[in-house]
Amino acid sequence: MRSVRAEALLVLCFGVSFAQTPKRPKLTLPPAPTAYLIETLTVEGYHSHSAAQILSAAGLGVGQSAGESEFEAARRKLEATGAFDSVNYRFAPSKDGEGYDVVFEVAEVAQLYPIRFEELPASDAELRAWLKQKDPLFGDRIPATKPVVDRYTGWISEFLAAHDYHAAIAGNLTSPEGNEDLTLLFRPAKGHPSIAHITFTGIGDVPSGSLQTAMYAVAIGVPYEEPRLRLLLDTAARPIYEAHGMLRVTFGKIDVTPAKDVDGVSVTVQVAPGPVYKLDRVAFVGADYSRSEWNSLVKLKTDQAVNFDEVRAAQDRIRTDQRRVGHLDAASEVKRDVNDAEHIVNIEFQIDPGPLYTLGKLEMVGLDIETEPEIRKMWGIALGKPFNVEYPDHFLNRVKEGGVFDGLKTTRAETKINAANHTVDVTLYFNK
């Protein structure tokens, strides 16, 4: 470090006369400097931001005169951004002794989210350019910490106020279109208006009443958000088109206007139905039935408009059939192979029968020692054989309708499924 050498001055005040020598003023040394030029300035521990971004946010640069108070102020400034879990620094004399070598150590907030804007009177590009201008740490993904969200809502409000928009802005994590990935959404703080009416244009050859009924059941009274409405269209309206063979239906522009008769909005959806696709081939994988047996079960007809309501009904029949032969966990998926050039579709049922369940124990409650053996003889599933989930109720109905007991009031069956060993215990109750 540069030092200042003080010369010691010694004044002798002795004399031989009685006359007093005038006092000389004391010399004082200037205080040692606390700030020196920053010769090197580095950042350690960053991943999401660049060192230049971090130093810009800290307000420090090489060649700047600074000391511990300035470094501490820069540390607090970085912490206040909400982008770091911790910020520390260290400094030491440079090799030439003329300044400081400074290192900042940062630990960034690990979880970052993409940002999105909705229902604001400015374009996405305009708002991003403004935020980049205001925040040295701006990027495609940012932390959702309170300091960050508060700063961004303030900056967005500042930009919009300059364009004569003064509504309050809020920023919240949300999942667009039902996806698992979260985004940080900035939009007006006032809640979304509810959907009061919904209409369709260009619907094609589907009954308008079926669309209205399906969408009114799920959308009316729901706060309007376009991603949410599109999800509802896919879950409630798309199946109606797929039941008529229109597999490529699209829901285009959505117009939203204030409702005239109630507090809410009227929504108009433009529909492009697309062509009708025919069912060309049906295949089955994953189970032991013959093709003819499966075709007889699913009851789907080729060379006509595919109807995915019937396909889903076929899946239900497959599951029911498999449960009757002991595959209680049976499930299936439908794979589509769509030929857009010829407007045909092949479907494949991918069947997972699951484990085979057998009858474990059979107990009967409410019978005496004479009648129970007779009823057991009537029971049609032997222990250890595949269990039919429908059989207990069928058996009790047969007993009751056959008049086996006089005055039999009620019967019921309970089943206990043992997933560990794939058995089913059955208890039959007789109330005479």
Q: Short summary of the structure?
A:
With 432 residues, this protein is of the alpha/beta class.
Number of helices: 10
Q: Tally of extended strands?
A: 17
Question: How much strand?
Answer: 25-35%
Helix share bin: 25-40%
Mean pLDDT: 89
State the distance separating the first and last CA atoms: 105 Å
The radius of gyration is 40 Å
- Please give the largest β-sheet: 4 strands, mixed
Q: Globular, elongated, flat, extended or rod-shaped: what is the shape? A: elongated
The ordered H/E elements are: EHEHEEEHEHEEEHHEEEHHEEEHHEE
Contiguous runs where pLDDT drops below 50 for at least 5 residues:
1-19
Enumerate the strands of the largest sheet in spatial order, edge to edge or round the barrel.
2-1-4-3
Q: Would you give an account of this structure?
A:
The strands form 5 sheets. Strands 2-1-4-3 form a 4-stranded mixed sheet. It is elongated and about 135 Å long. Strand 13 (331-339) and strand 14 form a beta hairpin. By secondary structure, it is α/β, with parallel strands linked by helices. It contains 10 helices and 17 strands.
Entry keywords:
432 residues
Write the layout of secondary structure elements.
Blueprint: E1 36-44, H1 51-58, E2 65-66, H2 68-80, E3 84-93, E4 99-108, E5 113-117, H3 124-134, E6 141-142, H4 146-161, E7 169-174, E8 183-188, E9 195-201, H5 208-219, H6 226-242, E10 250-258, E11 265-272, E12 278-285, H7 291-298, H8 308-324, E13 331-339, E14 344-352, E15 358-365, H9 371-378, H10 391-401, E16 410-418, E17 423-431
Parallel strand pairs: 1-4, 5-8, 9-11, 12-14, 15-17
Antiparallel strand pairs: 1-2, 3-4, 5-6, 7-8, 10-11, 13-14, 16-17
Helix pairs in contact: 3-4, 5-6
